[in-house]
Amino acid sequence: MKLSKRLQAVANQVLQGARVADIGSDHAKLPIWLVENAVSDFVVAGEVAKGPFEIAQEACQEISGIEVRLGDGLSVLQAEDGVDTVVIAGMGGVLISEILERGPLDGLKRLILQANNEEAELRKWLMEHDWMIAQEEILEDKGKIYELMVYQRGEEVLSDKELTFGKNLAGPVFEKKWQKGLVEIEKIQSLHFQTELEAEKKKIEEVLSERR
Ligand code: SAM
Fold it and tell me: Is the minimum distance from the CB of 52 to ligand 1 under 6 angstroms?
């Protein structure tokens, strides 16, 4: 099983020996990779949609250590699973925070999250529910930029800027993401100048110069 650069970055954040749930697993590529590469010997692949669930079931039928379960979010987990690590990747940030809100989160030590958008809302939810950043990464895969966030239990207060831009993200891909953000704001402003957007632009410029 060869993973995309994005999913490989997610897989690399799973600690050796972790008991994992991959929520919204789609075709269960990540669980298959984790078990085949002996990173984990127990992975729950959770899927809410019947089509992907059936494809995942078929793909995993000969692989021991993967349980494919149909259901919403973390409701597919049972206490006896002893899952300590949850992966939720490839969904919007608000949808991820809604899945976490519904829980249950008992016994979880590590969350590996890759939101396709609305990362700030997700960081805010995590901060308000006593999760702190363990690791952050930004990467480009097939022309798209992705942020990867790894959280562990703990209290941490992030500033407004850190909620938007991440705590420690920097580097060429970070620069590219936010330069694009600036271009988008300028495009909107060329049609209709808006003071709030000017403040947003200033914030991006400040963070870019702080993190160079
Ligand atoms: N995680 C994979 C990845 O990163 O490549 C697949 C991402 S795919 C775009 C999102 C998947 O999440 C879909 O298969 C969808 O059915 C599933 N999904 C959406 N909401 C869900 C929920 N509440 N519980 C479980 N799965 C969900």
Answer: yes
The alpha carbon of 46 and the centre of ligand 1 are apart by a number of angstroms equal to 8
Q: Which range of residues forms the domain containing residue 194?
A: 170-212
Contacts of 111 (CB under 8 A, 6+ apart): 85, 86, 88, 100, 126, 131, 149, 150, 151, 152
Q: Write the DSSP assignment of 61-130 as a string of letters.
A: TT-TTEEEEESSGGGG--GGG---EEEEEEE-HHHHHHHHHH---TT--EEEEEESS-HHHHHHHHHHTT
Q: Residue 24 C-alpha to ligand 1 middle, in angstroms?
A: 3
Residue nearest to atom 5 of ligand 1 (CA): 90
Return mean pLDDT, the chain. 97
Give the residue whose CA is nearest to atom 26 of ligand 1.
24
Strand order in the sheet with 66-70: 66-70, 42-47, 19-23, 85-91, 110-115, 144-153, 131-141
Residues 197 and 148 grouped into a single domain? no
pLDDT of 146-162, one tens digit each? 999 999 999 999 999 99
Tell if the pTM clears 0.90, that is, is over it.
yes
Name the domain boundary from 163, 178, 195. 163
Q: How large a percentage of the chain has pLDDT more than 70? A: 100
Domain match, 120 and 69 both: yes
Q: What CATH number is associated with residue 31?
A: 3.40.50.150
